[in-house]
Amino acid sequence: MEKKELSIFNAMKFLKDCFDEHAAKDGEKATMTKKELADLLHQQFEITENHFIAQYFDGMDKDGIMEKKELSIFNAMKFLKDCFDEHAAKDGEKATMTKEELADLLRQQFEITENHFIAQYFDGMDKDGIMEKKELSIFNAMKFLKDCFDEHAAKDGEKATMTKKELADLLRQQFEITENHFIAQYFDGMDKDGDEKITFTEYMSYLTKLFEGF
Fold first, then answer.
1. Distance (Å, whole) CA 54 – CA 37
2. CB of 164 closer than 8 Å to CB of 184
3. For all residues of the chain together, what is the average pLDDT?
């Protein structure tokens, strides 16, 4: 897979497929149990410690029900994005993460302190040139989606929100959508508060609902 093939569609499809694969193990694909999340964390991040699994599950589960807790793909992605942003912003540049910032994240989230493991994780995430399918992780998919939003949203100097014109540029580049009525339809679907601007949360919420059918 060439790097240019890492599109919004591929990134969202990967995240949805990953969620569905694990959530469906109990026959109920719409929600994920703690055991299913544990399987996902083990496969994607090699996390096996119960206290870390509980920490991630409680961080994603918002309804406070102790039985079968509901976990949406959006909550999972938002949690990962918030975790990345918190550590990446330590040098004042939230869009990228240095090796030192990754080391802080690994220490805080996984209690990994050995330099050779930190270097291994960093080199494994920092990809150039050819990207094979196996290298498309949840982390890489989330970072791509955030970077794509930021790239287009920043064109008017305000990276936190996206205008209709900026969304039109994104839709043309990523999906080859050029018709004004489709652009207006997507924009209105994302702009939930009607302020004529789209936040990253509104953008991801709409994409999540859109990709439920895939």
1. 9
2. yes
3. 75
